């Protein structure tokens, strides 16, 4: 039976591909999800890909993952910089956690240079656009394979 990975996306991620500034690339959120599903399948992972604009929903999903997922990939988006509740929920998760961001946070506004999510994450992937999502899944597969 394959490992289940929850891939959680925060506020406004559903708008990827619609951003006129190009910060997040031109690929739509639906296309990114489809690419992740294909990549996860190739890695032998079952992927549960979700997006919410609401902090409490993300917290509920992280708590749900404690019983249903072997690993988490999370792009908390704007909540990355402000959500102690998301951090607390992540700290209660026992499996690998990969934080991922489409853009390179350290090339952006200074308030984006601090991540609450990073305090719980096993590792961070940022700045590779949609490729970063697939890199995060590859990292999770490797972490799960090498887990005692």
TrEMBL record:
EC number: 4.2.1.10
Pathway(s) it belongs to: Metabolic intermediate biosynthesis; chorismate biosynthesis; chorismate from D-erythrose 4-phosphate and phosphoenolpyruvate: step 3/7
Binding site for substrate: 75, 88, 102-103, 112
Active site, renumbered: 24 (proton acceptor), 101 (proton donor)
Catalytic activity: 3-dehydroquinate = 3-dehydroshikimate + H2O
Keyword annotations: Amino-acid biosynthesis, Aromatic amino acid biosynthesis, Lyase
Biological role: Catalyzes a trans-dehydration via an enolate intermediate.
Assembly behavior: Homododecamer.
Family: Belongs to the type-II 3-dehydroquinase family.
Protein name: 3-dehydroquinate dehydratase
Species in which this protein is naturally found: Pseudomonas quercus
Gene of this entry: aroQ
């Amino acid at each position: 039976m394959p490992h289940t990975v929850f891939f959680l996306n925060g506020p406004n991620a559903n708008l990827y591909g619609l951003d006129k500034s190009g910060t997040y690339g031109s690929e739509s959120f639906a296309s990114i999800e489809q690419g992740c599903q294909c990549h996860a399948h190739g890695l032998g992972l079952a992927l549960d890909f979700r997006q919410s604009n609401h902090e409490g929903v993300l917290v509920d999903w992280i708590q749900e993952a404690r019983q249903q997922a072997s690993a988490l990939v999370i792009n908390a988006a704007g909540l990355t910089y402000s959500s102690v509740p998301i951090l607390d929920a992540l700290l209660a998760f026992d499996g690998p956690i990969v934080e991922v961001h489409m853009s390179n946070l350290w090339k952006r506004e200074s308030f984006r240079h601090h991540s609450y999510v990073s305090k719980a994450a096993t590792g961070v992937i940022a700045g590779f656009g949609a490729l970063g999502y697939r890199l995060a899944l590859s990292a999770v597969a490797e972490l799960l394979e090498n887990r005692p």
